[in-house]
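We close this part of the discussion by returning to an individual protein. Part of our work consisted of pairing the sequence of a single chain with a tokenised description of its backbone. The amino acid sequence and the backbone structure tokens for this protein are reproduced below.
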Amino acid sequence: MNLRQNRTCSYDVVLWGATGFTGSLVAEYLVRRTATERGRLALAGRDRSKLEALRDRLAAVEPAAAKLPLIVADSHDRASLDAMVGDAAVVCSTVGPYAVHGRELVAACVEAGVDYCDLTGEVQFIRAMIDEHHIAAERSGARIVHCCGFDSIPSDLGTLMLEQTALDRHGAPLDRVTFLLRASRGSFSGGTVASMVNVVVEAGRDRTIRRILTDPYALNPDGERHGPDGPDLAGPRFDRKLGRWTGPFLMASINTRVVRRTNAILDWPYGRDFRYAEVTGFGAGLKGRLAATSMSAGLGAFVALLAWSPTRSLLSKLVLPDPGQGPDRAAREAGFFKIGLHGRGIEADGRPVEMTAHVAGDNDPGYGETAKMLGESALCLALDGDELEGRGGVLTPAACMGMRLVDRLRAAGMQFVVD
């Protein structure tokens, strides 16, 4: 029974984790958006005094925020989560690590037929949610959409846009797409670091999780966890098609899996032989080679240091930000990202096709732009529901919201274009 179609609720969006660093940015974004667009917003967290303080700060910018409802709940108190979920059309969560704090909330949303979106980049958590809840979410109508931030909306929606344009122009999909991070400026918050550390810790003690993290098709449906792609790029490589040196991209380990799941659950619109990769771009000459080599070595060393408990503790104490910390407004506004998605294929008449999509944002990718992406995802689920794919399940941004979300993000200032 589709519970989502047969329920009423008090709020279009309940923002869970509103008082955290990222949560407060999403709250600020949603307050501005719901002041100009239909939408009933409530702020939720486990500490009422912090919620009240946040509401006061928001009201100083947008007076209507002074009347925002507040909901107190706890990630590990199922009764409080059920009460919160029961009042919501969409629950938008910023509370990570999701593998630690997100399981009960997803279960509550699935059981009630309530839509859900989050920022997780934790492959092992998403795999667990698919295994535990996909079938039940299909039945209840709950649309569970993970990865609605910098990982993995530019990758997932950019690829969808590129493939749909190829079909419209040339009558056939592109069989290979390479995501190239051309340039970016941004930084990590303590919450992001805590999620990364938790993934490393879980992988260190559980062989099954290690297998999931290294499987290129880890998020595909059962029976479809295979294909032509191999491991993500781990070192420097000169890409002749791109004409430059490339190195690994930190978020490839989640983004590539999300794009492949989109292709699978939409019944292979990109083709069963579709190949997808993500890399960081550098120059074509010696300087580019040195930069790619240096970046690859630095990233490998960072992961190795996180994997060993003594060095992980030292990094946490001396280098890495604590949860609740992150870049200030000036740093966020100075951030940006520019991505190219380079596709190749064969036209219906047999001629080769090459196309490029561009996705860009003019704020820190992990915070200013991520707040925009998550906020618009929540509003898309809440307000555009009749225009979206109707079925429930553990979905992806592209499979659930598709070009409707692209249109929203364009209107919000992000660039999504195809040459």
The CA atoms of residues 407 and 416 lie 9 Å apart. The chain has a mean pLDDT of 93.
